[in-house]
Amino acid sequence: MDISGGSVLVTGGAGGFGSAAARRLGGLGAKVVVADVADERGEALASEIGNGAQYVRTDIMSEDSIVNAVEAACRLAPLRAAIIAHGGPLPDDPGGRTIRKDGSRVSVAHFAHYLSVYLTSAYCVSSVAAEAMAKNEPLRSNQRGVIVNTASIAGFEGQPGQVPYGAAKGGIISMALNLARDLAPLGIRSMAIAPGTFLTYAFAQMGNEAAQERFGPLVLNPKRMGDPDEYGMLAQQIVENDFLNATTIRLDGGQRF
Ligand SMILES: NC(=O)c1ccc[n+]([C@@H]2O[C@H](COP(=O)([O-])OP(=O)(O)OC[C@H]3O[C@@H](n4cnc5c(N)ncnc54)[C@H](O)[C@@H]3O)[C@@H](O)[C@H]2O)c1
């Protein structure tokens, strides 16, 4: 798909994956909406990308806020791509293995929180974006748009203590195909990327070196964490390549645990 005449919505757009995808797609001439709650990083990124890119403060826990971000993108140009790459607020319950060492169980509220942050919000962005894309004039390729969600290898094989996160990301993997089926008659594709371990802002507290030392050796080859631009490259390829549809692509250097 030629994205140059369209707009792109990136949720978590100021984050590691989001900013990498935003830079790549902005570089192709798309009008980018950086949707996030990190105001300073979001504003800075929008001015770095230029070409009319906008930072729109967007809380992915709020449907109204998501609708507002989609409308902002549509005002710039027809919405052709939604890259869904946000994190979200931390839960009150610290989580852990389902039954913790002290015999207590991880709360249902904790499980529901993860579904809400990582899955319900992704459905909300996907469906609101698809509703807008459905109104686009189709391109010569008969395509109207593409939705790219972010799963995780935890959706295939999580680690101990990852039941809620793994379930949410498993939902994203399932949604990639089911959305693609529903949206096919409208000329809208749906894909998901399942990253392994990437050095994004999510590891800022730990520090880059400590994160590399701990997680780099888990990767089969190359023996390092992923670079967010490797996610950006794949997001770009998914947007541009009309024959990629209805599946989840692992992007993990062969990591399997
Ligand atoms: N980094 C990894 O190793 C990894 C691996 C697999 C999957 N993922 C997934 O990738 C996605 C992005 O994570 P990342 O690693 O780029 O993290 P990140 O911390 O670099 O980016 C996440 C972004 O989401 C934003 N955000 C937080 N709360 C928000 C809210 N309420 N509304 C809107 N935006 C909000 C943050 O401000 C941040 O900019 C997440 O869904 C995560 O589960 C990450």
TrEMBL record:
Keywords: Oxidoreductase. Transmembrane segments: none annotated. GO terms for molecular function: oxidoreductase activity. InterPro entries: NAD(P)-bd_dom_sf (IPR036291), Sc_DH/Rdtase_CS (IPR020904), SDR_fam (IPR002347). This is 3-hydroxy-2-methylbutyryl-CoA dehydrogenase.
